[in-house]
Amino acid sequence: MGSSGGIEEYNVCINDFIGEGYPVISTIPLNVMFKKLDIDIEVNTMISNEIFVSKFSVPNCDIHSTNYYTGTNTFIYRATLSGSELIIESTFDLLLADDIEIVKQSFGLDAIKLVPIIMNYKQHDGKLTPFDDEYRKALLYRLTKDFNIYSLGRYAIWKNILLDDVVQDVEVIKRMLNQSNYDRSIGK
């Protein structure tokens, strides 16, 4: 998927949809979409850095919380407790027990024995590398104007966003679909 995966992973022919007058709402990563449309974009514009994901079972737990780690003392940047599953995301593999202890302490799980489910699964499309925002917006505008494609989700718009932002973007797309081309082009 995304920049490191091939377009073969998406079993869809965009050309079957565009040009028919129907809008397309796409979650396909922006760089993959332009490859599918055979349109060149600036080289190395859209890069995502691989991340490592480790999952643990947490006995007798039913908490839903996410912690972010911004310090330099660990390569972990986010950990999510979802019910009884702890998901740790890092920029390098978790080799040190100290890293896991940092997460355990931040959730108040010091005395709990975690049961590993998956360790250091390498996810090629992880953290998005930002690039010039005006160029990114121009690419999205071109997809909408020239191909009637509306991009939805962080990979499709190539911007780190929250799930709440996606819900708002659905409303924006809905409004755009109800506008004329003229109103859409002048931003009304």
Give the topology, please.
Elements: E1 24-26, H1 30-36, E2 47-57, E3 63-68, E4 76-83, E5 85-90, H2 97-107, E6 115-129, H3 133-147, E7 149-151, H4 154-157, H5 163-177, H6 181-186
Parallel strand pairs: 1-7
Antiparallel strand pairs: 2-5, 2-6, 3-4, 4-5
Defining key terms:
alpha+beta, 2 domains, 28% strand, 7 strands, 31% helix, 188 residues
What does this structure look like?
With 188 residues, the protein is of the alpha+beta class. The chain folds into two domains: 7-46 and 131-186, no CATH class; 48-127, no CATH class. Helix content is 31%, strand content 28%. The protein contains six helices and seven strands, in the order E-H-E-E-E-E-H-E-H-E-H-H-H. The chain has helices at residues 30-36, 97-107, 133-147, 154-157, 163-177, 181-186; strands at 24-26, 47-57, 63-68, 76-83, 85-90, 115-129, 149-151. A five-stranded antiparallel beta sheet has the order 3-4-5-2-6, covered by helices on one side. Strand 3 and strand 4 form a beta hairpin.
Summarize, please.
The protein has 188 residues and is of the alpha+beta class. It is 31% helix and 28% strand. Mean pLDDT is 80; it is low at 1-8.
